Please model this.
Amino acid sequence: MLRISKMTDYAIMVMVELSASRGEVLSAHALAERSHLELPTVSKVLKLLVKTGLVDSYRGAAGGYSLERSATRINVAEIIAAIEGPIAMTECSVEEGLCAQEDNCGLRGNWQRISVAVARAMEGVSLAEMAKPVKPATGPLHITTLNS
Model:
């Protein structure tokens, strides 16, 4: 099963709250309250988002955080990469030499192809789109295959 980490999910929640603030600078405490997350978790997420340039931080009495650019210009892939690193299905699809089986395995190119497709799909979804409620599908999501 492929899943993003809880920290990445929390990062997207925090980013959605920042986008809803419409440029207002919000404190980590305010973001924790609005997203219903613990303050230490929000602080950790914000540190990573600032480090990667998705969020701006401001010091002082009126300090806090805001999006670095509009929510329409930030995509889900950027947020995932900020928390988890490069989007990749396997270690070998990111960088050569990370797998002990590399010399005996011919799957690296195919894993890279799949990783690129997943990354492109995530790049196609903006933070602004994530902020819009969509009715979730009922039941588990199944992918069907066609048998010849």
